[in-house]
Design a protein that fits this description.
There is one protein chain. With 366 residues, the protein is an alpha/beta fold. Helix content is 40%, strand content 11%. It contains 13 helices and nine strands. Strands 1, 2, 3, 4, 5 and 6 form a six-stranded parallel sheet that branches. The protein has a three-stranded parallel sheet with strand order 7-8-9. β7, α10 and β8 form a beta-alpha-beta unit. The longest helix has 22 residues. The protein is globular, with a radius of gyration of 19 Å.
Amino acid sequence: MLIIDAHLDLSMNALQWNRDLLASVYTIRTREQQVSGKGRGVGTVAFPEMRAGRIALSFATLLARSTGKAVPHLDFDSPTQAFGMAWGQLGYYRALEREGAVRVITGAADLDDHWTAWERWESEAAAASTAASAKSGPPLGVVVSMEGADPILDPEQLSVWFDAGLRAIGLTHYGPGRYAGGTGVETGLTDLGRALLPEMRRLGVLCDVTHMSDRSFWETLERYDAPVLASHNNCRALVPHQRQFSDDQIRAIAERDGVIGVAMDIWMVASGWTYNDLGGRAVTLSDVVDHIEHIRKVTGSPRHVAIGTDLDGGFGREQSPADLDTIADLQKLPALLRERDFSDDDIAAVCHGNWLRLLRSTWNAR
């Protein structure tokens, strides 16, 4: 089953964490055995495993905050520094494209060509050995997304980013972003955020409502009159935390014909989780499917739920489902969905079809 993952922090891992993503997960783990810090030596994402897991397309982020609360390699003292880091991250994707490792997807024609190539390769690889099929085939596709709009110096600069390939933006991340209040605060859109949204709408840049405070979320829906996405978000009904969406928010996204990608950072998957333990029970991919099933129940359809793992978002195996060693194990999801009475068409929609529909409708409308 081909998969689209709507949230991977590939460039952050390559540049801020100095990971060569062309190497395998296991090689990177070995190289990091003497590197201290959360997530080091236990990563789950690299290009060979993405190919083995049939991750044909991912939304690949640019991430550099400037909230006034500096964090090394993540939150910078000034917007100009954040701009420089994010621009370098975008350059990393373009360098990978030049090497033939990835293809930056910026429009409907690109998307259709890329997806056809992967479908053809998947059909041919089914008759080949696993080893051979994992080492060949089309480049990995990336849709460039920005997690937190802080690097955009002002709304008038958005066209520069768009011309460079940016196609989706989440206005905020953790804390008080320059454009909107995010996770952990109660503030809404700023003047910059209110000015950026119509520019995004004019250019056809998708709005990612992940990480928004509740106030930012509802103010954004008032001002952005198009389908929205939540690249990596789970359900507040199952994990009661501001970072998750309430059922009302889930319904509001569905009413826009938007899509929610379920995340696999396990503190967002199971309520009460602490490191490596949930009352003696491991958190697994089946718990992730609980969120998929809940969104289907709330919206009445599997049309509005998909995958947005965030598996490389500053953590590794210690904070991932226990039955997931690398991102290649996303191939376990179809069987788990089938056990919950998802049809083959529903499974394909969750694994890739819903993201394809959202991208095509946005880009064709543009």
